[in-house]
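User: I'm putting together a small comparison set for a docking exercise, and I want a reference complex before I start. The sequence is below, and the ligand is iron/sulfur cluster. Could you produce the 3D structure with the ligand included, as C-alpha cells?
Assistant: Of course. I'll restate your input first, then give the C-alpha cells for the complex.
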Amino acid sequence: MNMAGGTVVIKSNIKLVTGRLIEQGVLLEDKMSEAYRDVVAVCEMNGKDMNEYNVKSNVRVKSEFGEVVVKAKRNDENPPSMVFIPMGPWANAVIGPNTGGCGMPQFKGIDVEVKATKDKVLIVEDLMKTYMGGVD
Amino acid sequence: MNPDSTIVTDVVCPLCGSLCDDITVRIENGKIVEVRDACDMGESKILGHDRIKSPMIREKGELKEVSYEKAVKKSAEILAKSKRPLLYGWSSTTCEAHEKGIKLAAEVGGIVDNTATVCHGPSVIAIQTVGLPSCTLGQIKNRADLIVYWGSNQSQAHPRHMSRYSSFIRGFFREEGRKAKYVVVIDVRDTTTTNVADEFIKVEPGHDYKLLSALRAVLADKADVLPDDVGGVPKDAIMNLAERMKKAEFGVIFFGMGLTQSRSRYNNVVNAIALTRELNQFTKFVIMPMRGHYNVTGFGQVLTWETGYPYAVDLSRGYAWYNPGETTSTDVLNRGECDSALIIASDPGAHFPGKSLKHLSKIPVIQVDPYHNPTTEFADVVIPSAVAGIEAEGCAYRMDNVPIMVRKLIDSEYKSDEEIIDDVLNKVMEIRGGK
Ligand code: SF4
C-alpha cells in the first residue's frame, strides 16, 4: 500500500474502469460472504492483455493511489488496455481519492499497472485492516 | 399451499431507484418465503439473510454485545461531544428517517450527506447549474420512441428498468413495445445492455464531453468543424445519431455513472443537459439520471425542503452551508476533518476510496444497519435496525421524483431507522440539556 499517496508514477497505457454488476447487486447486503468476494474481487480483462501480461490466475493492480490483488477473469467484450473491477472494497484500494472540488472521487479511467501474481486475494476483514492505523 | 400462508401483492421493492411496485410476496409464519416478479437483486434483498443480532460496542478491539439502551447512550455521548460529526448514508431508508437524521445533525452541528456524494452528486450540481428537462417514467413508457442509455449499464444496475419503463414495455402510444423504439447505448465497453440495443456507440474513456459537444455542433449546423473521429467515434456515426435524435417523436437520455464518475464529472452532465435542451428546438427530448439506491432521490428531497440544499450540508455554523468539494463526505474525510461519524443505511466501507477509510478508522464510528458489512469493521457502536421497506414502512422517491410508500410486510424484533435516530436524538438533547 502506498501510504503517502500520489508519489508513485504509473507508466502504463491501461485504464481501470469500475462499475456495477448484477451479481454484486444481489450480494449487496451480504458483503462479508465468500460469494461476494468471488464476484467483486475480480479484474475483467481482454484475452489479449492476459496473454501479453502472462496472466493465469491472480493479478496485482497498482495505481498512483494504492494496489490490490484480485482474480483475473477473461472478458473479450472488454477492449484491450481497459480493465474492469466491479465497484466495491477491492476497487477502492486503487481508485483516486481526489474529488476535483466536487465531492466525487475518481472511480473511472484511472491509470493502472497490471501484473500477474501468485499472491492471494485478501478477505474483506483483512482488506479493511490495511486502512487501519496507518499514517495519511 | 400452507393454510398460514399470506400472499401480499403490489409490494414495493426497496433496492434500486426503479422502485418497482408490482412485486408479489408470500409470507408464512411471519417469514417471507417467496418473492415473485422481482429481479435477482430485489428478490435477494426481500428474502433477507443473516442479520446483526444484537447492538454492540467495541471494547479492546472486539465488538461486544450490549443492550439497546447502552448502545443508544454511547452513540449519543459520541455525537454530543464531537465538534464536527459526519452523518452519512440515508439512501436505503425512508424519508421519515431522513427528517429525524437532519434534526439530529442540526442538534449536534454536524455535516449531513448521503450516497449521492459518490454517485449522482455531480448530476445534482449540474441540475442546479442548468436545470433538468425531464418527466416521469410513465411518460417515457407511453411515449418514447428513441431511448439512449449513456454510461449506464441498465441490465446490471437496474435490471427491470428496461422491461417496466423504457425499452421493452408496451405503452399507450407505443403498442408494439420494443419494436416501436430505437435503443442506443453509448459506453466505453460492451456490456449486457449493449447486447439488447439497436446501436452501440463505443466512446473512449473520458471522452464523453467531447462527444456531447460534437452532437451539439451538428445540431447547430456546425458539422463542418468536426474532425473525422471524436473520442473514438467516427463522424458518420455522430451525424447519424444527431439526425435520429432530431427526427424522434419523443427521445430520452438515461445517464449513469459513466458520465458522473469519469473525467469532467458534472461538466459531462451539464453538457448532456444542454444537448437535451437544444434538441427541444426540433422535437420533444428529456433526460434522466439513473439513481442507484431506492431512496437516494428522497433524501435529496427531504434535505432540500429542510435546509434548502440537496446533499453535503454542513450544519456546524448554526445555519445550512453547502459547498460540494468542501462539505462532501469524501473531502471531509480526506482532509481528516470530522471527529466522529454516524453511518446509516449505506456502506462507505465498501464504496469510499482507501484514503477516506483511513480517517474513518481513526474516529469513533456509529453504524445503524440490518447487516454486517465492511463498515462494521470500522464501527465502534453497532445498532441493528429493521429493514425499511420490508419490516418498516415509509416514503421513498423513485428516480423520476415520484413518491411511493414502501410497505411493512412482516414484524421485526428490531426498531426502525426512524425510531433509532429519534432515540439517539432524544438522548443527545438530554445530555446537552444537562450541561
Ligand atoms: S429493478 Fe430495482 S426496484 Fe425493480 S425489482 Fe430489481 S432491484 Fe427491485
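The mean pLDDT of chain B is 94. Residues B 13, 15-16, 18-20, 38-39, 41-42, 158-161 surround iron/sulfur cluster (CB under 6 Å).
User: Thanks, that's exactly what I needed.
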